[in-house]
Structures are given as structure tokens and as C-alpha cells.
User: Fold this.
Amino acid sequence: MRLHDEAIVGAARGRHDLKEVAMEIPRDDLVAMYATMAKIRYFEERIREIYYEDKLPAFDIAAGPIPGEMHLAAGQEPVAVGVMPHLRPGDAITATHRPHHVAIAQGVDLGRMAAEIFGKDTGLGHGKGGHMHLFSVEPSFGCSGIIGEGMPVACGAALAFKRQGKDNVAISFFGEGAANQGAFHESLNLAALWNLPVVFICEDNGWAISVPKHASTAIADNSDRASAYGMPGVLVPDNDPIGVYEAAGAAIRRAREGRGPSLIEVRTLRLWGHFEGDADAYRSEEYKQEMAEHDPMVTYPERLIAEGVATPAEIDALTKAAHEEVDEAIEFARSSPYPAPEDALRHVFA
Amino acid sequence: MTATMTERKLTMQKAIAEAIRQEMERDESVFVMGEDVGVYGGIFGATEGLLDRFGPDRVIDTPISETAFIGAAVGAAIHGMRPIAELMFVDFFGVCMDQIYNNMAKIHYFSGGAVKVPMVLTTAVGGGYSDAGQHSQTLWGTFAHLPGMKVVVPSSAYDAKGLMISAIRDDNPVVYMFHKGALGLGWMTHNPHATGPVPEEPYAVPIGKAEVVREGTDVTVVTIGLSVHRAIDAAETLDAEGISVEVLDLRSLVPLDREAIVESVKKTHRLLVVDEDYRSFGMTGEVITTAIEGAFDFLDAPPIRIAEPDVPIPYSRPLERFVLPGVDDIVAGVRGLVAA
Ligand SMILES: Cc1ncc(C[n+]2csc(CCOP(=O)(O)OP(=O)(O)O)c2C)c(N)n1
Ligand SMILES: [Mg+2]
Assistant:
């Protein structure tokens, strides 16, 4: 059985001719998208490696320097990096239980984010929230462990921007699984009804834990659902930063100009298990192999090089710089102190 | 039969899955719905093996649409089925509570008893492994506060099977909560007592009957879920100090076995209530009130309670440890009571 094969076919197709779009997309953006992807992937790899410290041989979710559930976004980098070049200071983002790639792309403080994941006092939330509950004021970022939770909040941010006469936008990231949650439908209607500057970005990795999209969703493309709410819906059929860049650019421009919300669905890949420790037995080896062949961390820089946008040396330098930044953030997190136990009682009320 | 057969031991997780399987074999109207209950077998294994045994018509993976599938369970229950709907973590109740408390729990009453809603809502509860404030709550007090649904929380594998069978056969909606730390999952630190003898054949444990899981004479500790094991561990420590602790496992909050609480307090004259739920407006207050109403003259000291301070469950390990009731807290609480 082939599941979610369109993403793979789409990626293989190479829908965008880089030379053509490269004329429209500033070279700096094309290269910066790679740099951010490299930062994201390495961050996820480091977190993954540290996550298993002291948890093995018999996996114990409560043990190690990073306990609890851990949802990593390897493979989904393009969705996050394609949106970010269009953002301005003051824009707001809501993300999901799988939040790191989006937070990193938006420029959330990497050290404080890592420290939060380690449960340290220097973390974004002083260790209160952890990996599924990362909150940043500047840039404005929030996420949640409850599926569909961020969409209404993005509508509210957009409502505030509108009332305040700002041209800021709110972006809500969510999985394809979340598109079957009531909050999705209510939020799309609200956003369209009130003409809010919000962009809904569905990260369709084809899976909600073990449930494939075709077993959860009555139609093939969530982007088609936009029409039911009177807003544009766009499908980016391949896991390509450039496709996301184009679609998000148009949607964000539209929102800033006061022309209302849009919905974008991106076919992407969840390269690893749903959470760390997931045996991922519900996906075949063949499927996983096929995903690996379309890993955007391989295909995207290859294209940049093949089409003369960047040299291999440049790519190497960007990769190295990204790794250094991540290593520094992780080191900061590791060496930071834990909060005092009784600090648990602080921060309930303002 | 042989001794080894009667002494067969199961984890609580396997006991739950076995109970559901046996009831599905017995009764065609029983079926399961929820996220990842099929191929995955339930994130906490409560539906392990059921898809292979009964197929996708009776073991249904749902979209992430809790309002729709829990509401659908209500509708199916009204129309001759006995659905088991799984809410993966109780913390997710926010997205679907209307179907639970305005529909599932009230229809029988609104209909003057004419319409029955025989369904089970299973859900995982509890913290202790740094899953933070949206995946670590128990919230049983919240459900118990709202009339019209039974609220069951097993602490042992034996009870887990017998209470699940009772829940499925019950003509009322039953919220069946399993504590993650008591399931005996291979991937989570769990209390060893969660594994215990479970008979192969189906049997029912009545809902609404508390159990004295450890007899004692000096102090009564009333609790539920994983804290039963914490209380037993504390009682063993205290035993060495010459303090005799009785541990009462409530096993269900609705119905609450008030008689058992009163009876034990009349015997020991001292009460400590331990609850892995928020302190205010919850189980601890209810149990203490029950003791005061029924055994006021017998109390030698003001009852005390150990519960989560009224803050969301924090992520970081030292913070979470501070908030959750621990064996040490219980030991200290009992010592204080005896000294009073
Ligand atoms: C309301 C709610 N229901 C169920 C869950 C459990 N859960 C966590 S992640 C997940 C799958 C989400 O799938 P999707 O939205 O596609 O995001 P992905 O994990 O693929 O990034 C589920 C069911 C939850 N966190 N919240
Ligand atoms: Mg998904």
C-alpha cells in the first residue's frame, strides 16, 4: 500500500524551475532558507541525541536530561523556512506540538528555547512549559500540545492587529490531522467573516501519529476546504521551500493589504516517528526509504548548487555556522541551572 | 486447574485490553472508537490486539475530532450499541466536554429515565514523567463534580479488568480513567504493584465499592489511582516506626463509597486524603467533608490533605516533583497527624 505518495511524487517532480524563480526570489532569501533549514535540522538532531541519554537500553520516557514527549520536525523544514522571509517585526505565529522548526525559523531565542526544552530556569518559561509550550513575546510565538489550539488564537492576534491599525499578520501552523478539529472550521469561518489578516498553514505530513490522512480526511486536499469559507486555498504539492515561499508570499501580502485570510496546504514529510520512542511500525521500510530519498536537507542544497545559486563551499560554510549556533544554544541550556522546586508556585497569576 | 494458571500475572494495560476483548466477544454491540486505537493499539495499549481480532468495523481509528466521535458514541449508545470511546489524554477534554457533560451525562435525566446511554469513555490520566500541563492532569474531580456519569479509576490489574467489564455492562455512561504510571508500560517508570494476578475468565468488580487495600489502626489514608501505591509504600515505611496505616482505595469517585470512608475513620480516628488532582474544590474536600459529616465525634485530629497545589502541572522535573504527591509527603503527613 502506498500512502501519502503524492508528496513524494511531488518532490521528485521538482515543480519549480529554480532558474526562473531565482530571478524573482532574491538570492539572499534562497540561501537564507537553506541556512535556517540547516539550523533546524541540526537542532532536531542534537535534541534527539540528547533525548536518548540515560533513557536506554530500556526506553524510559521520564529519564534523561530531556524527559517527556518529544515531537521533532525533521523533514518539515521547508514549511517553516518558506514563510519566514515574508515576516516583519510584530507579526505573530502559533504553532503545534511539533514546534521547533517554526520557532527557529521565526528567530525565537535559540538558547532560551533550548533551555526550556531542558527544563531550565533560563528557559523561555523558566521550565514551566517545556517543548510543547514554548512562548516568546518578541518575536511573538506560541504553541500548544492540544491539536487545533493555535488557530483561534491566531485569529485573535489578527483581530488585534486590525483594531490597532497595524499591517501585521498572524500565521497559524497546524498539521493535516488538526484540519478535522472543530477549531479549524470555526477559525476559518471567523477569519473570513471578519476579513482578518491571518494565514493558515497546514503542514500535511500525511500522518497523525499512526493514522494516515486518507483514513482521517474525507477529501484529498485540505486546501479545497478554503472555498467553503470564502477564502483562497493553495496547495503546495512538494516539500519545497520555494513553493512555500511563493504561496506564503502571496497570502501574507494579501493579508497585509487588508484583503483577508488564506489557507495553504504543504505536502511535507515527517521523516522520524511521531514522537521519539515511537517504533513507527505502522509505516513500511519502503516508505521510509522513499522519504529519505526526498529529504529536503539533501535535495534543496543540491539544487542550489546544481543551478548555480550557491557554491558547495558556501553551503558548507552556512552549515558550519548553523551548527555552531546550535551547539552554543545547547551548551547554554545544559549548563543553566534548574529552577528551585518551590518556583512551581510562581507565575499562576500576573 | 494448576496454580500457575490462577496466579497468572498481567500488567494493568494488558488487563484492560483483555477485558475489552472478552466483552467484545460476548456482546456484538460493543465496539471501540478513538485516535490510534487500531494499528497502534492505543497510545497506552488499552486496545492492543483488538484490530486484528475484530477488524476495522469494530475497532475504529477516528480523525482528531473528539466532539464528533464522542458525540457519535452517545448517539450509538442511545441506539442499541455499547461504544467505548477513547479520549487519548484526559487533558484533551476541553475540545469535547460539551458532548460529555451536556449530552452523555444528562440525556438519561432529561428523558426522565427513558433514554439510556450505556457507553464507556476511556482516558489516560496522571503525570510524573515531565509531559507538562496539557498531558499530566488527572481531572477526575472535574468529571466527578458534574452529575450523570460514573467515574472509575482502577489502581491494580485485577480491578482494572473487573471494573472495565462492569463499566461496559453498565447502563450508564462511565468515565474510565487509567493512570499512565500504573499501567505497567515498558516505556515509562511505573509502579511494580501495577502488575498483579488476573484471572483468565471474565469477572466483574462492582463500581462504587471502595477497598481497604491495607489494614491499619492509627491513621486512614484515603486515595485513588496511582496514589494508592504511593500510600502503600508510605505505610510500609511507617510500619517500621510503629505507625499502623490503613489505606482505602476508593476505586471510583462516582459513586463515592462514603460508608467505607466513615467506617475506616471510626476505626482509626485520623484521616489523611491523598489526591493527584488539584487541591481546591476537589476530591480531598469531598472525602474530608464525608468524614466530618459521618464520623465527627470520632476524629482525634483535624483531617489533612495532600494534593496538587492549585497550579498547572509544570514541565521541569524538580518543579513537577514539587507539585505531585510523593511517598515522602505522605509519610510526613501521617507523622504529623499522629503527633497532633
Ligand atoms: C485535542 C487533541 N486530540 C488528540 C491529541 C493527541 N495527538 C497529539 S499529536 C496528534 C496527531 C497530530 O497530527 P497532525 O495534526 O497531522 O500533526 P503532526 O503530528 O503530523 O505534526 C494527536 C492525535 C492532542 N494532542 N490533542
Ligand atoms: Mg500530520
Residues 1-16 of chain A have pLDDT under 50 and may be disordered. Strands of chain A lie at 92-95, 140-143, 170-175, 198-204, 207-208, 211-212, 233-236, 262-267. The longest strand of chain A covers residues 198-204.
